[in-house]
Amino acid sequence: MHDLNSHTHEHFHDHITAFESMDQAIALISYMYEHNKSHAEELHEICHKLEASGKNEAAFMVDDAVDHFREGNALLELALKDLKTRNQE
Q1: Contact (Cβ atoms closer than 8 angstroms) between residue 76 and residue 29
Q2: Is residue 68 in some structural domain?
Q3: How far, in Å, CA of 9 to CA of 4, rounded?
Q4: Contact 58, 46 (CB under 8 A)
Q5: Which residues form the domain of 67?
Q6: Which of 23, 31, 65, 79 would suit a FRET pair with 17, their CA atoms being 20 to 30 Å apart?
Q7: Helix residue ranges per DSSP H, 1-89
Q8: What CA–CA distance (Å, rounded) separates 89 from 81?
Q9: How high is the mean pLDDT of the chain?
Q10: Does 4 fall in a domain?
Q11: 42-51 long-range CB contacts below 8 Å, 24 or more apart?
Q12: Contacts of 12 (CB under 8 A, 6+ apart)
C-alpha cells in the first residue's frame, strides 16, 4: 500500500541533498525539525499507553528515544539559528 504521507515523505527525501541555496537548506532543516518534533510527541503518547498497559520496560526505552529526539532537535534548532543569522550577513 502506498499512501500520500509515504509518497510525500519519499518525495521530500529526494530533495534533501539537492538544495542549492542557504534559504533552501534552512527550509529543509526547518521541515526536519518540525517533522522530528511531531514524531517525538507521538512517541511520548505511545510511551504513556505502554505504561498504562504494564509494558514498563518498553515504555522506558521509548521514553529514552523521545529524549534523544529532543536532544537532536535542540541541535537542529541551534543550527537553524546559526544559519539564519549568517544568511543575513
Answers
A1: yes
A2: yes
A3: 8
A4: no
A5: 21-88
A6: 65
A7: 4-15, 22-52, 56-88
A8: 13
A9: 83
A10: no
A11: 43/69
A12: 31
- Give pairs for 6-12: CB < 8 Å, separation 24+: none
Alpha carbon separation from 80 to 33, 56, 63, 68, 71 (Å, rounded): 9, 36, 26, 18, 14
* Cα(30)–Cα(12) distance, integer angstroms: 13
Structure confidence by residue, pLDDT tens digits, 43-76? 999 999 999 999 999 999 999 999 998 999 999 9
Mean per-residue pLDDT for 7-23?
64
The DSSP output letter for 26 is H
Give how many domains the chain has, as a whole number. Answer: 1
pLDDT at 1: 40
